[in-house]
Amino acid sequence: MVTATQARLRNPVDCEHCRVRDQALFCGVRPEQLREIARYREQQMRLRAHRQLFQEKSRPLHAYTLFQGWVALYKTLDNGKRQILKIALPGDFLGFQLGNDGLHTHGAETLTQATLCAFPFDKVLEMVSKQPAIATRLCEMSVRDISMCHEHLICATKKDAREKIAHICLETYYRVRRQSPEDYDPKRNAIFFPLTQEYLGDMVGLTNVHVNRMLKKLAADRVLTCHNRRLTIHNEERLIHIAQFDFNTLAPISPGRNIDARF
Amino acid sequence: MVTATQARLRNPVDCEHCRVRDQALFCGVRPEQLREIARYREQQMRLRAHRQLFQEKSRPLHAYTLFQGWVALYKTLDNGKRQILKIALPGDFLGFQLGNDGLHTHGAETLTQATLCAFPFDKVLEMVSKQPAIATRLCEMSVRDISMCHEHLICATKKDAREKIAHICLETYYRVRRQSPEDYDPKRNAIFFPLTQEYLGDMVGLTNVHVNRMLKKLAADRVLTCHNRRLTIHNEERLIHIAQFDFNTLAPISPGRNIDARF
DNA sequence: CGACCTTTTGATTGGCGTCAAAATCTGTGG
DNA sequence: CCACAGATTTTGACGCCAATCAAAAGGTCG
Predict the structure, then answer these.
(1) DSSP state of B7
(2) C9 C1' – A209 CA distance, angstroms?
(3) How many CB atoms within 10 Å of residue B231?
(4) What strands lie across the sheet with B71-76, from one edge to the other?
(5) A146 CB-contact burial (10 Å; exposed 0-12 / middle 13-18 / buried 19+)
(6) B95, B54 in Cβ contact below 8 A?
(7) What is the mean pLDDT of residues B32-41?
(8) Does A74 score more than 50 pLDDT?
(9) Residues A138-154: pLDDT tens digits?
(10) In angstroms, how far is CA B243 from the centroid of its own chain?
(11) What percent of chain B shows pLDDT beyond 70?
(12) Higher pLDDT residue, B183 or B79?
């Protein structure tokens, strides 16, 4: 179990040069403010796959901007079942959400090797209260998270197994295209996809067994295939239809840029 | 169908005298700023029960602070099914969440008579960008909403029907105690409860028929009764256990006040 | 190569949805 | 105050989707 503080330190890099800044917390912040933010930043860190970034109910030492890699946010129940709350991709801001006890409401584990920028928690609060642009941006990102969570709630309660699988595959596909271009292969309509069937099940409330059956069915129908940590979309229109996908509530969009709502 | 603009106007009241300010957007904002906020406020309005405050996919003219009454936020699917995203109670801020198309992602309808304060949407944006305290507060409220939504997601996917009903009844009970004291009867451990079994089903993904069966079972077990727009908790400890309730992710807490996490 | 994780397939079970109908509650107007 | 329509609650019978249990096959990594 490797925690944030045990992760090896790296040379800090300027946030303004971060390639994910368009979707990140500090996008839209002016250069002179960025310099000030840089002073808040403590360290850039790198974690291997399948490590804990922070534990459920642990005291929040840092909040993080994810630069590269996949991170799963999850919560475990008393009965041992686990719910994936969000798959964090490059540009996402992690660990800011606390419960009434001041501890993390959920845990975070890396699904791949990941690079993050850590901010001491109290400095994040300071940053937010002193820099309106950051508060506004964080607000925007939170509102987007709510939309995505609402969509997951609908997915979980109002759709059958096949539609659920279709939905999360398609959503993840679009999010990766926007937030992690290096994981996207435009020629094949494919993305790198490190989620096991067990994880997929924990995202939408199905057993790994039933996830497998649905993936088989979608493959048999020539809609998508999911093999070897690779998700390939064969019939996007059909998939959109099956998933009843709503493009208006997709992942965060960088403000000021007018982007096709689908990407 | 009565919309915001058709609602009859009332004499504005000062937000700083609003009795729900402890949980509301403007709590923690200093008096001189409140005066400025008051200038942004357009109107106080009152709606009867079962009216649309705003429609799904409509253009957002206002955002609202709910002063009094219950409002359901919902989203309808292509197949006609409906998901309740949140039951808004006094102090909640509504209508701020937009999709990529700039339109409301969900609809809002009153469950009871309701009193609201309407802010022109563009002025809300102005307010947020100019007043760091408000941006921070909105951020805080959004993060709380995410927590609650996460909890609903867990409830929907990882709990059986009885646990689901137990969960939403208990959560609503606590939220009403904090946000709408006049709907709370401490002597009987009871609250005013305008939700029909159909609404309960739409909140957690059950049919009204099955909701009814579970309510019957919980009543037979002497845990709670739900009759005549009144929810009574008979065995709180047992209910907490059944629902596997997590007090850390409960409704917004007013900052600066140190409150028992349970209320 | 061997241990472990992940995927795959089949048989069986059960919880919740669906359909239907009766009972009860609520509000409205005569 | 009563009559009536519509909404909501209640109960029963039946069917199906997904969970559960079990086991084999394939992949991955030390």
Answers:
(1) S
(2) 10
(3) 23
(4) B52-54, B107-110, B71-76, B82-88
(5) buried
(6) yes
(7) 69
(8) yes
(9) 999 999 999 999 999 99
(10) 20
(11) 81
(12) B183
Q: Indicate the domain borders of chain B.
A: 4-131, 159-249
Q: Which residue has the tokens 């800044």?
A: A21
Q: Alpha helix locations (H) across chain B?
A: 31-40, 121-130, 132-158, 161-179, 197-204, 208-220, 236-243
Q: What chain B residue is nearest to A258 in terms of C-alpha separation?
A: B100
Q: Over range B189-196, report the average pLDDT.
A: 97
Tokens representing A125 are: 């609060």
Tell me the nearest-neighbour CA distance from A125 into chain B, angstroms: 9
pLDDT of residue A127: 85
Gap between the Cα atoms of A89 and A179, Å rounded: 6
A11, pLDDT greater than 50 = no
Closest-CA residue to A171 (of A207, A188, A147, A206)? A147
Question: Which of A96, A130, A133 is the closest to B143 by Cβ?
Answer: A96
- Binning pLDDT at 50, 70 and 90, where does residue B253 land? very low
Q: What residues of chain B lie within 8 A of the CB of A244, using their CB?
A: 77-79
Q: Is the pTM higher than 0.90? A: no
Q: Can you give the distance from the CA of residue A197 to the C1' of nucleotide C9 in angstroms?
A: 15
Q: Which fold has domain A4-141?
A: Jelly Rolls (2.60.120)
CATH number of A159-249: 1.10.10.10
CATH architecture of residue range(s) B4-131: Sandwich (2.60)
Query: What's the rounded Cα separation, in Å, for the pair A26 and A135?
Result: 10
CB contact under 8 A, B142 and A147: no
Q: Looking at residue A28, what is its pLDDT?
A: 64
Q: Mean pLDDT, chain B, as a whole number?
A: 85
Interface test with B, best of A84, A130, A206, A248 (most B CBs within 10 A): A248
With beta carbons under 8 A apart, name residues in chain A contacting B131. Answer: 132
Q: Among A55-64, A106-115, B4-13, B197-206, whose mean pLDDT is lowest? A: B4-13
CB < 7 A from strand C, the residues are A 196-198, 208-209, 212-213, 215-216, 227; B 160-162, 205-207, 209-210, 228-229
The pLDDT value given to residue A262 = 29
